[in-house]
Design a protein that fits this description.
The protein has 85 residues and is α+β, with helices and mostly antiparallel strands. It folds into two domains: 47 residues, no CATH class; 32 residues. Strands 1-2 form a two-stranded parallel sheet. Strand 1, helix 1 and strand 2 form a beta-alpha-beta unit. The longest helix has 21 residues.
């Protein structure tokens, strides 16, 4: 992160956002951008400025986790008392 390049910070709490911007300005950052949304919302914006950006499909991840939870539940029902908790 460079003190002269655009710096973006996001949060859903405006007070934190403003305080963070003031701290960055005090540290010498000149071009701080405020983004009023969650990181999940910002990270799904494919044109968001970021170094070495990586896009994560959280929807697919949550679907996979739910599938694993369902499968584990099925195994527990098939083998009551045999799976460690």
């Amino acid at each position: 992160m460079s003190r002269t390049s655009p710096t973006t910070q996001g949060t859903t709490i405006s007070e934190r956002l403003v305080a963070f911007r003031v701290v960055l300005a005090d540290l010498g950052f000149k071009n701080v951008r405020l983004y009023e949304s969650s990181w999940l919302g910002y990270s799904s914006w494919l044109s968001a400025p970021a170094d070495d950006e990586v896009w994560t499909n959280f929807g697919a991840l949550l679907t996979a986790i739910k599938g694993l939870e369902n499968r584990f539940g099925e195994l527990e029902r098939q083998t009551p008392g045999k799976l460690a908790k």
